Amino acid sequence: MDLGLNDKVALVLASSKGLGKAVALELAREGARVIICGTDAGALKATEAAIGALAPGNVFSVVCDLTDEEQRKRLIDQSVAAFGPIDILVTNTGGPPAGAFEAFSLDDWKHLYNLLFLSAVDVIRLVLPGMKERGFGRILTITSVAVKQPADNLISSNAVRTSLLGLVKSLSNEVAPYGVTVNNLLPGYTSTNRLEDLIAKNPKVNEVKETIPMKRFGTPEEFASAAAFLVSARASYITGQSLAVDGGWIKGH
Prior knowledge:
Elements: E1 9-12, H1 18-29, E2 33-38, H2 41-54, E3 59-63, H3 69-83, E4 88-91, H4 106-134, E5 137-142, H5 155-160, H6 163-175, E6 180-187, H7 193-201, H8 220-230, E7 242-245
Parallel strand pairs: 1-2, 1-4, 2-3, 4-5, 5-6, 6-7
Helix pairs in contact: 1-2, 1-8, 3-4
């Protein structure tokens, strides 16, 4: 299936590692021109090299702390200067720390709000006018299955990521007449470095496999395939949706 992504300009946030990296690689495979960003310059360069080997000339990287407003603006300015207007935006962040409610101070909550919610809002705000002008745009937020079924000991993710659900649904209705779709992708337990770290700190996390109908963790590539479809030309009539890629873990409808 031709997804219609050839030469589309895609910005994938927090994409030097993990799910963001997997999505960036998949979009490059489909012919998109991909901008990646992250705070770890070494990891970012390694990912840029991997994408460059796959799609020479179709990757550009920017070191960016998504909690910093000025750096977010610079990210957009440099991206547009390198590849032109952004057609596809995939918002993403590193995973918040595990812990119970009393483990987090008020400053921690402010930081998490800035990282998980405000960073997405601001970057969307910066790219949306151009998408509306051109009559095409794809916005995809990456959150977590925790927004539908809270995960134990991840209260920060359960709470703050949920706010993006209201944003996605409301914004999708506002921008649908302009040819812009807005969707949300919910990764379940997926074999990334973050999951490995969680298992290292608490081996019982590995037992979650038994609660997943497929009896295994997902792969980043499986998640990235779903992301690529939702930001494609083929998904032009899908908007305002939250799709779980979780092997059936969520128990509700």
